Structures are given as C-alpha cells and as structure tokens.
Amino acid sequence: MDASELQPITDFIQGLVPFDTLSNSTLDRCCKSLSVGYYSKASAFVPLDETDPQLYIVRSGAFEVRNDDGELLDRLGEGDYFGFPSLLSGEKVSNRVRILEDGLVYHLDPDTFDYLRVESRQFDRFFNRAFAKRLRHQARFKAKELTTTSRVSSLMSNNPLIIDINASVSDAAKKMREARVSSVLVIDNHKLCGILTDRDLRNRVLAEGQDGSLPVHQAMTTQPKVLSSNALVFEAMLLMSEHGIHHLPIVDDERAVGVLTSTDILRGQSSQPLLLIGEIERQNSLDSLISVSKQIPLLLQNLISADARAEEIGRVLTSVTDALTRRLIILNQKLLGEAPMAFCWLAFGSQGRQDQAACSDQDNGLLLAHEPDEAASGYFEALTKAVCSGLDKCGYIFCPGDIMAQNPKWRLSLSQWQSRFASWVNTPEPKALMHASIFFDMRSVFGPTSLFDSLQDKVLAETKDNDIFLAGMTNNSLVESPPLGFFKKFVLERDGSEVKGIDLKHKGNALINDIARVYALSAGIKEVNTAKRIRVLMEKDIINRKDALNLADAHEFIAHMRLSNQGYQHTHAMPISNYLQPKHLSSLVRHQLRDAFKVVHDAQSGIKLKFTRSF
Amino acid sequence: MSRYLLKSKLCWRAFRAEDQALKTYYHGQQSLLELDVERAPLLAIDLEMTGLDAQFDQILSIGIVPIEKGRLILSKAEHKLVKIEGSVGQSATIHGILDHHLNSAVSPEEAMTWFLERCQGQMLVAHHSPLDLAFLQKGLSTHFRQRVTLMAIDTLAIEKRRLMRQHEVLKEGALRLGASRARYGLPVYAAHNALIDAIACGELLLAQISAIGQGESVKLTELLA
C-alpha cells in the first residue's frame, strides 16, 4: 500500500503540531502504522492498557483527563493528544480518560512514536516539553528597535477623508476644515487617483489665481506614492524624504485605508519612553501634563507593535506613571510650599510591581516620617488630593477600592503603617488578606529611601517564615485557578464550566504574581517585580531552576498574549479587555498557552504543598 | 439470522467445496459465529467496478483493512488494482482509475487467490455488501469453477434497520456511506478510492457497534441479518 492512498488521514495528521515538522516519508510511515479505534460514551472511560501504551490522537469526539483525585486536568477535542506521558516515562499513569462524546481516535504505537522522536527533534521536543510542561520561547519576544520595526498601521490615521474626483476645490477645502486635517484623498470610481493637500491649495489654486470652482483633479497630485498598512514606518520615512512629501495615502487591496503624515511619524517618535519621560519632566502645569499623557496609549501601542517583551512594556509604562506622579508632586509642592516633614509616595499593586498595562487604575498611599499635627495633616490632605485628581485626569482612574493617598486611611505615619501591616500578618483573615495582597507589592516612587526601607524591613521581618500568615496568603491565592484551555471552540474553567474567553490577567498573570509574592514574603525578599522576584528566588535556591524558568516563561508568555490581544482589540476598535478568544489562535500558540496554564496550575499545587500542609 | 441455520449452511458449503482454501474459509466462518463482534477478527472491504452489474461489469480495485480487537490496523491495509478486459471507459469519471493506472494491476485470478487468502478466519464487512459480494462471488466462482457463496456484515443494512426502528422516514441518500458516517460524527473523507472507502466502512461499523451495544457486547450473529 502506498501512504498517499490514505490521503484524508495523512492530511489530518500533517495539520497537527508537531507532526507538521515531519518529512513526507516519515509522515507516510507514521500514518501507515496507525490503528483506528472508536470510543463510545456508553463505555464511560477509554480503556488504557498499561502493557500497551499508545499515543492517542483525537480525530473526533470529546474526552476529559482526570487525575486519581478526580480533578479535571484537561479537556480534549479534535487534534489533541493523550497517553504520551506513559509512552515517555514508561511508568504507569493513574489518570483516567473519560469519554464525553463518542469519538474516533488514531493510535500510534510505541515503536513508531520512538522512531518519530529520533527522526525529528521538534517532534521529540514537543512531547518532552508537553510532558515536562516546559516552555521556552525567548527568541520570539526579543525587543526590537522601535522606529525601524513598527508598522505604518500603528501610526496612520484611520478613516481617511475622501472626496470624489468631480468635486470642486472649495468643497475639498471645506471638508478639510471640518475634519481639521491637511489633506484629502481623491477617489475615482472607488479607486484612489490622487491626493489634495494644503500645499496644493496654496500652490496650484491660490498662487495661480484660480477660484474655488476649480475641479479637484486639476489641483491634486495625481498618482501619489502609496504604501500598504503593514509596511514599516522606516520605509514610510524613506519614501517621504526621497520625494519631499509629507502625506502618504495608505492603500490595502486598492482600497484607501488611511493617511500617514510626517507629523504622525514625529508624534510616534516622541512617544518613545525616554522622550516622553523627558517631556513630562519639562511640563509646568497640570494642563500640559494632561496633554502629554495623551501619548501614553500610543506609546503602549507602539511597544506592542514593536513586539517588545511584556516585562519591558510593563516597566516602561510604569516608569512613565512614576515620572508623572513625581512631576505632579513637585508641581503641587510649588503651590503648597515645602512639606512639613519627610514623606514617601507609595505605589501598590501593578504600579508597585512595575507591570502596568492599558487602563490601569491608581493604587497608592502616603508614608509619613512621623505622626502629623493638624497643620501637617491639612498640608498632606491638600497635596494628595491634588496629585490623585491629577493622575485621574491623566488617565489613571480613581481606585474603585479607594486605595489612594487622598484617603486618610492610607495616609499614615511609619509606625501606623508598621502596625497596620503587623495586624494583617498576625491575624490573617481571608478577606483582609485578599485586600492586603495589594499592599505587599509596595514601592516608593518619591521620597527618602531610608524612610521606605524602615517600613519594608519591618514588614518583611514579620512575614518571613511566618507559617500561619503564609498559609493564609497561599489559600487566598488558590481561590482562582487557571482555565483548562481550549476545548473545541470553548474555554473551560477547571471545574468544567464554560466561560466567554480566557481571562489572561486574573486566571494567568495575577496567579503568578500571587505565587511569587508568597515565596518572596516567606524568604524576606525585597523585590516586588514578579520577574525579578522569581529570579531572586531561583538564585537563592528557594525555587528550583527548572520550575523558576518555567514560571518566568509562563508569566512572560501569558502577559505577551494579553498585550498582543489588547493590541488587536485596539486596532480593531474593540473595547480593551483581558479576555482572549481562542478561536483565532494557531495550533502552536494554543498548545503553548495551554502549557503555560499548566505551569501555573502546577506552581499553585507547589505552594499549596509547601505552605499549607501543616494547617 | 439464527446461528444454527448459518452454521449448518456453512457446514454444507464446506462439505461441497472442492478446493482446500475454500474449505478452510467456510470452516473459519463457522467458528466466528460464536464470538462477540468486538473480539471477532473482521475485514472491511470495498470494491471499485466498471459498472453495477456483476454479470457484465468487472472489478477494478479491491481495498481491504483488517479490524482486530476493535481497531482498524492501517499497517495491514491493502489495495489491489485488477486488470480488466477492454477499457475503463466512462466509469473512470466515478472511480478515477484510468487505463494507465492498471499497468501495475494484477490479473483477476491473482486477485481472487489473494483475496481468499486475506479473508481466512475473518468476517467481511462492507457498505451495501450484496453488490460487492456479487462481484467477488462471480470472480471466485470462475476461479474455482464452482459456486462460491460469501458472507458479510452489511453496514448499510445495519443503518437501515436502526433508522427504521427509530421510525425515521428514509430520505434519498440517507443510507449512503458519507451520510451514515455523519450521523455518528465521523469525519468526512473527501478522496474516494476502494481503500479509503473500506476504512470509512470499518469506522462506521465500530460506531454502529458502540451505538447498538451501549457498552454491552454485541454478538456477531446479531449483525448478520
């Protein structure tokens, strides 16, 4: 028999990661060796014969894998695998595979499986990685130079102004005035045929003594240079300087989709972080700070489209927030006068961890050197109110939980903060802890380091090796669990219920933040940034190297998915959210994301074992 | 059909058979009748022919795939092209086999010897088996110079019975292989040749068995009606 005669089966197998990496002859051999079985819901479980391990490839139907505690580990649909752990380890597995919907399953025997692992490194690596739940994909997330790699689509204005070729120049000028733009695209029969700019109106109409009834096509620049929306900004800059032009129509599939102007490019460059921070530091009024802060969303989009590492994006955005906060404090101090005592502006939560993303809210507080008298109280009340409302106007909305320096509850002296933390640590009630977990990711944005250190040192001394507190924090962080992944087109929670998408923040990164925090507090580590916490934990041998790398990778991968998803939402004018719809993901990304969630789940089991065992 | 009736028929056929291979075949079929269908060795088959009339038309190709312990074994699947007299003519539009493909074909005699050897000890499975069996019986009868009668599980007949029992109105084409498979959520196999159709038929039988049995075992004789 010739394997090409098994075409429908070969086609299916070839479409699966990692079988897509096999050579044609290897793939043929693989398909010829398959056997085909059918599992019916009526028989409840797939009979897994320990003496006959197989790689099971789901062709149709639905299955779920549960461990011996009955916990749901995975939901499987078309193109998913099971049975490989025992193939790789040779050990018997206690997992059970329940049949949810009748299904056809291809079986790959151990000899062929081993042959494929020898033939293809990618094949071997895929199953080893799936087995070890390891993730490594750093190369993909290397940051690139911004201006040279960002795309035209990230800077151009969408919905370009359009006018018909038979219109008059005065109509065109009116349209441009209404839209407050300096150019209009001229369309003939749905096709772009020219562009009319301010300069054309000046040179070809006014300077020539023409009146407003002149048809557009006699004044426009015909057959203008165009680019497609996925061209690089760099190419646009080249084209503009070569031809001495300032406007580029952006055309996809012969359809005008936007205009890119030299001002857009300039604005894009000025939204680079260092320039932006420099600009913030030069502003002398709230109004000008507000207008500068309008560039922050653009900065985020640029960073996303440049494929920067998620960790770096978080740090860059947070340093902009920090700069803005500092500038607001300084500006308000100019109005209110010198502070009556030393103080620190504290950042909590995502700003504390330096992983801010789009639409962050405020989480801040004030640390005073000592108890304030009435006058000092009034001073700090005025200062914090001004800074918090300034931040709000710059796009950092008020904290819904009211964790803000303007709230007198979070404007405390050193000893008050110390006893506040001590009470959280010593009577760890679940609700208070959930609230308090925000406070443990704490950083000083403004003020003397020594003052902040005396708070942090005291807090860490309380938490370090404090079993009861750590058990409480751990239980708290186990309330949420990562989603199981993608089952057909749906996303399922670990208890099997269906949700509208994957909440990458609350079911992914927030859980990793929790895990890193518990470990860091248990060891008295000062770092608050999650990636740095994990690194220190690895260096101190508190988490073993492999687990630490996996956790850091999973954190980066999920954060990257979240950011690129938000980038997608932004470019498609959808509301920005943390929800990812799995249906557009490639099979590889689907597998990687699933692996990342498995890492999170395993790390949760890890802290559960380590910190809650004695309770 | 009753197991005893079937058994006595097979006994008689074995007694009448002049060729040893034929005798072995009939004896083998007898012992299969005792088994649960999940345990019985099966052989799913499909033929491509030049037409639908076994008297005048000829076999072009035969695809077979064994089913052991409820699994189709693709490594033992085989596909044979068979030499014909004359040209494939118009039928090429249906099966896609052209005259020049038949260069690697075996003679009808070789095909029949090969086929009988492959079905020893196995129960045949086909979709709309009477048609395939008519061609095979004619081929074997010519080869052995005596009347040969084959037995097979017919997935179309099973499907028809199941639908009738559910009081379904049978729509035109509802019993075709693809339509029947769709009812069990089995994948669509686009390319058609005798081998893929044999596999498709085998998979359909597995799905049917699980639907009939509801987790209980099904006697092979229950399917031979």
TrEMBL record, chain A:
<keyword id="KW-0808">Transferase</keyword>
<dbReference type="InterPro" id="IPR018490">
    <property type="entry name" value="cNMP-bd_dom_sf"/>
</dbReference>
<dbReference type="Pfam" id="PF00571">
    <property type="entry name" value="CBS"/>
</dbReference>
<feature type="domain" description="CBS">
    <location>
        <begin position="156"/>
        <end position="212"/>
    </location>
</feature>
<dbReference type="Pfam" id="PF03445">
    <property type="entry name" value="DUF294"/>
</dbReference>
<dbReference type="InterPro" id="IPR051462">
    <property type="entry name" value="CBS_domain-containing"/>
</dbReference>
<dbReference type="Pfam" id="PF00027">
    <property type="entry name" value="cNMP_binding"/>
</dbReference>
<keyword id="KW-0129">CBS domain</keyword>
<feature type="domain" description="Cyclic nucleotide-binding">
    <location>
        <begin position="18"/>
        <end position="134"/>
    </location>
</feature>
<dbReference type="InterPro" id="IPR018821">
    <property type="entry name" value="DUF294_put_nucleoTrafse_sb-bd"/>
</dbReference>
<dbReference type="InterPro" id="IPR000644">
    <property type="entry name" value="CBS_dom"/>
</dbReference>
<dbReference type="InterPro" id="IPR005105">
    <property type="entry name" value="GlnD_Uridyltrans_N"/>
</dbReference>
<feature type="domain" description="CBS">
    <location>
        <begin position="220"/>
        <end position="276"/>
    </location>
</feature>
<dbReference type="GO" id="GO:0008773">
    <property type="term" value="F:[protein-PII] uridylyltransferase activity"/>
</dbReference>
<dbReference type="InterPro" id="IPR046342">
    <property type="entry name" value="CBS_dom_sf"/>
</dbReference>
<protein>
    <submittedName>
        <fullName>Putative CBS domain and cyclic nucleotide-regulated nucleotidyltransferase</fullName>
    </submittedName>
</protein>
<dbReference type="InterPro" id="IPR000595">
    <property type="entry name" value="cNMP-bd_dom"/>
</dbReference>
<keyword id="KW-0677">Repeat</keyword>
<dbReference type="InterPro" id="IPR014710">
    <property type="entry name" value="RmlC-like_jellyroll"/>
</dbReference>
<dbReference type="Pfam" id="PF10335">
    <property type="entry name" value="DUF294_C"/>
</dbReference>
